[in-house]
Design a protein that fits this description.
The protein is α/β, with parallel strands linked by helices. Helix content is 18%, strand content 20%.
């Protein structure tokens, strides 16, 4: 007997060739809703600073390298220019190191990524489908929840945040999610990592049962202050990244990882204008980002 595998319900929602997923919900009205939250005109960067050889980074990925191509030492050694001097530098970094956004081509299952596109489209030349260059600027309302606060459930990195805990935290903000919004979750992992109390071996995060609720709220992006958004490592050795599969592959919802939420949470604000602009890296499966919250 041949088993007929049920396809994810979200596939085909925006057409069989769609490569943007839930970002189709990011309409001008969603952007205006974000603009309406601005009260002070104050901007906060939500990115982890880029430092050579430092910063949290998931396994298998090379730490950032920063090289000076031209510096003051060159002039001290006798280099001269016509009327001026200059410095120049370059970076070598993983697109999934430090603060970054995952493309829909980042994960697949059963050889199919978002919307049923074949994993064969991702080769050594990059992603021919669902690449990060298709994302473009994300300008929308952000909602932030602190699950690691004094009364939050995420007090250590053994915890997987359940859908009930996430729903309760969002409801407590008084913000009603709408199509096109972004959700940011503080798990406390980044703070604990900075204090030397956590490593990249284990991190608190969202449980897989959060996926359906996140989709129902209309969120187009979910970010967190850990290295995977979801809790890790997965307890199932045969299912290493279940929430990645459920959100990116099955629902077309982007994930943003290693987001620094400390200063934002300290403001006490729950909603704000969020601006995220990935690099237009053609064929990339992820991109470093410097998310900005405008209060």
């Amino acid at each position: 007997m041949t088993t007929i595998q049920q396809l994810p319900a979200a596939w085909g929602r925006w057409g069989k060739d769609d490569e943007r997923g839930a970002l189709n919900l990011l309409t001008p009205s969603a952007t205006y809703r974000g603009l309406e939250t601005v009260r002070e005109g104050r901007s906060l960067s939500l990115a982890v600073p880029l430092r050579a050889g430092k910063g949290p980074i998931a396994g298998r990925r090379a730490p950032l390298q920063h090289f000076m191509v031209r510096d003051g030492g060159d002039y001290a050694a006798g280099l001269t220019e016509k009327g001026f001097g200059f410095a120049d530098d370059c970076l070598v970094l993983s697109t999934h190191g430090n603060t970054h956004l995952d493309a829909l081509a980042h994960v697949w299952q059963d050889h199919r990524m978002w919307n049923g596109h074949s994993a064969d489209h991702v080769t050594s030349n990059g992603a021919r489908r669902c690449g990060i260059h298709l994302v473009g600027p994300i300008v929308t309302r952000g909602i932030v929840v602190d699950l690691a606060g004094p009364h939050g459930p995420s007090q250590d990195d053994e915890h997987a945040i359940s859908v009930d805990e996430l729903r309760t935290a969002v409801e407590a903000t008084g913000c009603l999610p709408q199509d096109g919004d972004a959700l940011l979750v503080r798990t406390g992992w980044l703070h604990r990592w900075r204090e030397g109390e956590a490593t990249e071996a284990r991190w608190a995060g969202l449980a897989p049962d959060c996926a359906s609720w996140i989709e129902e709220q209309g969120f187009v992006l979910v970010g967190a202050d850990n290295i995977a958004v979801e809790a890790g490592p997965s307890p199932d050795p045969d299912d290493a990244a279940p929430l990645h599969v459920e959100l990116i592959r099955n629902r077309g919802i982007h994930l943003m990882e290693l987001v620094d939420l400390e200063a934002l949470v300290a403001t006490g604000r729950h909603e704000f204008l969020l601006v995220v602009a990935p690099l237009p890296l053609v064929g990339g499966v992820g991109s470093p980002v410097n998310p900005v919250a405008v209060l």
